[in-house]
Amino acid sequence: MKRRNFIKGMLGTGLVTAGSCAFRVPLIGAAQATPLNSPVVVVIFQRGGCDGLNTVVPYGDPDYYALRPQAPAGIGIPAPGQGADFSALALTDHLGLNNDLFGLHPSMAPLMPIYNAQNMAVLPTVHYPSPSHSHFSSQRYIESGVSREDFPGSDIDYQNGWLNRHLQAAGANTPLQAIGYGSKLAQALRGNVPVQSFSSINAFNLGLSGTDRQALIDNVGAIYDALPSPQDSYRELVHQSGQTLFGNLDAISAIDTNSYSVEHGALYPNSTFGRSLKETAQMIKHPSIGLEIVTIDVGGYDTHSDQGAGEPTGRLSKKLQEFSEGIAALTTDLGERMDDVIILTMSEFGRTAKANASEGTDHGNAASWFVIGNKIQGGIYMRDQDPDGGWPGLAETNLYRDRYLASTVDYRDIFGDILNQHLGHEISEFGTLLPGHSYTPLNLIS
Questions:
Q1: Which residue, 176, 234, 240, 260, is most buried by CB atoms nearer than 10 A?
Q2: Where would I find the H helices in 62-209?
Q3: Domain 34-201+264-433 sits in which CATH superfamily?
Q4: Cα 122 from Cα 101, distance rounded (Å)
Q5: Residue stretches of the chain with pLDDT short of 50
């Protein structure tokens, strides 16, 4: 049977009347004033391997400029106050350990007010043991929350993403408790709890008009609600997926993106990334949606050539400008709601310490991650128990395999802080949530 005929049949079954679905939510247009009262996590994945050394620039390490000469001869970004038009933006370490060492890329100026307000943790040396230089593999390890040694070949759970494990432990409470923006569902959200992904709210309509979509929800959604959960595991998966689909369709139908008004003068980038963030803000503000987890993919960070330095026309500059403007807009739009929202940004790896012959960089090791929110204890984190603040250095003897920035922070400790200090899980649950990992808190969250 063709999909069109099947849907047409479902629209005309008349099994239930309009408005009878159990998961009906009210229409929302303009921004709501209802404050958040539950935690939300927004995960932004910079896919392609973002160059951490030109994102969080270690201008205080003299070996940085030996490896990366400044423009026009290379991709090195000048130190703050060096008279260059596009120099690094100095970061004063609120933890008091790494002053006069780091600066943000000049295109990341929109994030400086957040950092200066001590609401942004900067982690320039994040990765995992025995790293892979494959995009696919490294993304899979990180989003599964599982080490490379345990993936696969052991009894460690690598099928469920780390955020899906959270949903399993916390219990699904609302149709749109978690969503993913992107061409496919992020591995972090894959697992036993069905989660929807889409490119935009308006595109998630099955090609139907509003009236036909609502009729489909009413007719078929009620069937899924009425049927008992099947015993067979595969039938149960189909049953759960159907419930998720129609629950999400019904919840999404309540959101009118055309009449949404941003707050506090927020200005989102005119891009797919900007639209995803704007829609995320609208759903977070909705008093009935109950959104808790969002993943957003943004690509274009695989800068093997013509990466650029600090000039705004460079490939990396353009990506970091969009990245920073988008995050700044989201935090501005949400305002006090950021008390309950944490934004986590990540990339599958950094880049080589030395620029290549094509004025770019190749797949590397440690990457720069950020954690943002009003509850974040801002500063630069590289394991502050080390006397020197934890910076591994860029001298050849300090590089991992003579080519890569060494890692000092295991990404799973960042996940652990969020799971424990924000989402409320007990550390005793980490055997399931972060299998095979011995969690050492970073204490990013107050």
A1: 176
A2: 62-67, 112-116, 135-144, 162-170
A3: Alkaline Phosphatase, subunit A (3.40.720.10)
A4: 13
A5: 1-35
